[in-house]
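Hi F.,

I've been meaning to write this up properly since the lab meeting, where we talked about keeping a consistent format for the predictions we share between groups. The idea is simple: the sequence comes first, exactly as it goes in, then the structure tokens exactly as they come out, then a line or two of notes. No screenshots and no reformatting. I'm using this chain as the first example so we have something concrete to point to.
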Amino acid sequence: MAVLSSPLVLIQSIPPVTRAFTAATIVSSALYAYLCWKGLALEAAQYMTVVPGSALYAPWTLFTSAFVETSIFEFIASLIFVPAALKYLERLWGSIETLKFIFVSVVASNIIAFGFNWIEFIVTRNADLFLYGMRYHGQMSLQTTLLVAFTQLIPEHQVQILGVIKARVKNLPMAYLTLSTVLCFVGFQCPWIIIQFGWFVGWIYLRFYKKNTGESVGGVDTYGDRSETFSLISWFPPFMHYPLTLLGNFVYSLANRLHLIPSSGSDVELGGYGQVPGTARAEAERRRALALKALDQRLANNSSPVGAVSTNAVPSQGRSPPSANTAASPSPPSNGRALDRSKSGTDTDSAANVKSEIR
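Output, unedited:
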């Protein structure tokens, strides 16, 4: 009984959305393989994958195609990475937010791919290739959006790929994007181009639309992550920052005028909402630590030895002995020391207040 109960306990420990998504992937992929084995590959592709020429007659495939992996390699890769990643996010975000994230990542990426193929057909008039020759399926777009989410949550975490290659999490999305770009140029547009659409959709959703559960400012819900560390230009090399900033500011201002973007509240630098939702706020803690370090350096620079101000003393006239009036009056160095002590005390109090606010 102990042997039989162990798998059940393991399955029950998996959050519900992750469990349902994994089960749907296994069942749908097995059904697709069975239909292809029976000689019904054309019908299976039409009703289970996104075919741009017929997707309007099977709109459910914009979502359900994510459950279909057509090769054993894709199937194994998805089962290794996606359930573990979804399990982590579902425990952090909750089931509803995780389900919304999956739906938006898959559907929006497939809609962009659908539109892109129709544009290619209008330009080339090659329906056999761009409308019926490409079938979008699988979880490549979702895998990319998961990498974007982990870049937001744990960017400095180091992982090992195949036990050999070490890389930080923040570098993985662009590496996957580079692989997609190379394969698309070689001629493998489908399904590799959907990785690029998935990256864009994942960043847009997490940047502007994801509701930060449990984090409200003045009773108002906040959305997205508007911090500089998660900006669009942070994904690209410095020489591309200026044109991307101009383009991004134009699109952002236009979207705001059309009320397409929900308000986000204050940025994390201004003491508003934390950019990392949930309880595991690794990046926010790192930023607080940097702020505290800067304050400590400022205090160290402002603190000076008391005796250093003695150089400000007024030089005495000749070698005449000090008179009674001179001895009775306070000397300029002591006044300087008193002013410096009061200034240092004021700086220390203000720095302590800023530290308490940061903490």
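Notes:
Residues 95-124 form the longest helix (30 residues).
Confidence is low (pLDDT under 50) at residues 266-283, 305-341.

If this format works for you, I'll send the rest the same way.

G.
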